[in-house]
Amino acid sequence: MIVMFEHNHLSELFLQKLELHQKEFTFIKHKNLFIIDSKQQYLLEKFDSYKVFDVKTPYILSNKEIKSDFFIDFNDFSYSNGDFIIIAGPCTIENREYMNRTAQFVKDEQLHFMRGGAYKPRKSPYTFQGLGKDGIEIFKEVSDDFGVKIVTELLDIRTIDEAIKYSDIIQIGARNMHNYPLLKELGKIDKPILLKRGLSASIDELLLAADYILSEGNDNVILCERGIKTFETQYKSTLDLTAVALLKEKTHLPIIVDPSHAAGNSKIVPQLAMASLAVGADGLLIEMHPEPSCAVCDGEQSLQLDQFSSLMVKLRELATFFNKKIV
After folding, report:
1. pTM for the full predicted model
2. Could you give the CA distance from residue 129 to residue 120 in angstroms, rounded to a whole number?
């Protein structure tokens, strides 16, 4: 049973009442919303100004019945319904020169966010694993110099303080979507979380993962469709744009698309990016690199700077048609 109070003082009074009975029942509180056992309904008898939700899905806090829109504040600007966020940059932080060139380009395109991995989850332990703390410190210096915001992946709960210190958006990769202790810790901080769908995760599983973050108090969650594993071998993953359209019906959380990891081939990234906007996505996460042929990893799926610039022209035209504002 889900109950939401209209006023804070009523919420606090109800919490006190629940705590008196906490040995008999368990409950979850999220701001003015309570998830309680139906046997606890009698505790509401002397209360008014509340609403009861009949949510039939396993996920609750990410359900659109609970909330209809999203709003994320980045201090100098906000991200909300109707906005289309574009996050671009290299797969991994390699050196200061490449990061400078990319940041300048991001700034010239009037975008706010730049991506870059300091810690890389690789299939093989023998391949490049990222520059680690040295990499994130390079990213921070570039961010300060060019005024771009940092989006980087958190792999391990042991480096969460580092991620909080340096990141503007903390990315949780597909392999960590089911890392529930990590998700719960991220729910305790006031920092936007970019949550990627697992390679074999269902839509319900993705939204339940988001609920792990939301239930701890952090409302700033951005979902990301990055492709799922199927029998097809001609490309890296199957980009599930059906999921994007369906998620727009099921959740209030923003959903962005990573066409680079789905494609594994830069030649088809622009088409997938434009299709993502058309199907209703709230943004894109795209890999681009000043010199893709020299990239340490994922160069084959990274756009050259001029290719990204050409894509931006088309995206701006499409955004106008679909009443989206690129931020």
Report:
1. 0.93
2. 5
**Measured distance CA(192)–CA(79) in Å, rounded:** 11
Cα-only R_g, the chain: 21
What is the rounded distance in angstroms from the CA atom of residue 212 to the CA atom of residue 253? Answer: 14
pLDDT in tens, 137-162: 999 999 999 999 999 999 999 999 99
Cβ(115)–Cβ(106) under 8 Å?
no
Which stretches within the chain are classed as H helix?
8-20, 96-108, 133-146, 160-166, 180-186, 203-214, 241-250, 259-263, 269-279, 305-321
Chain position carrying tokens 């040295």: 134
Question: Residues with Cβ < 8 Å from 99, sequence gap 6 or more?
Answer: 90, 93, 116, 138, 139, 142
